[in-house]
Amino acid sequence: MTTQQQINIAAPRSGDIDPKYIRQSASSSSNWEMFKWLFMRISGPILLVLIFTHLFTNLMIGDGVHGLNFGLVAGKWASPLWQIWDLVMLWLAMIHGTIGVATIIDDYTKKDSTRVAFKVVLYLASIAIVVLGTLVIFTFEPCMTDAAGNLLDNSPSFCFNQ
């Protein structure tokens, strides 16, 4: 005859959890967690539409993958629609990904100093990518000229047809 041992598991939030593993948020009454949760649920489906439309127009229309070149990007970014499309895709993807990775950092780091270091690196990298990506989208000039205003020899062929 075997005897069963009774295992007592503490109820969630009962106070029986080791306090060194409990972190308090900056403000328990803030809606920051709700905003992040809502943003992730809204941005996910929007990103799916943005990304699959982007892939369809770049890979299925025209020459497919063999048509991906500088000229294709230059032609697309000549239109404000595609500039805004790619900008929204960049911003949503970076914010969505940054929130996701920050959540993973919160879940898997125990030391506050490690958590802060990882998040500082994450936020700085995300800001740098968003700023640089935004600059590329809005300052992209496929038809480069010299100081005298003449087209450079290595400019794409469509620049000479203007």
UniProtKB/TrEMBL annotation:
The keyword Transmembrane helix applies. It is found in: Membrane. Its main location: membrane. It comes from Enteractinococcus helveticum. This is Succinate dehydrogenase. Keywords: Heme, Iron, Membrane, Metal-binding, Transmembrane, Transmembrane helix. The chain crosses the membrane at residues 38-61, 81-105, 117-140. It comes from the Bacteria. GO terms for molecular function: metal ion binding. GO terms for cellular component: membrane.
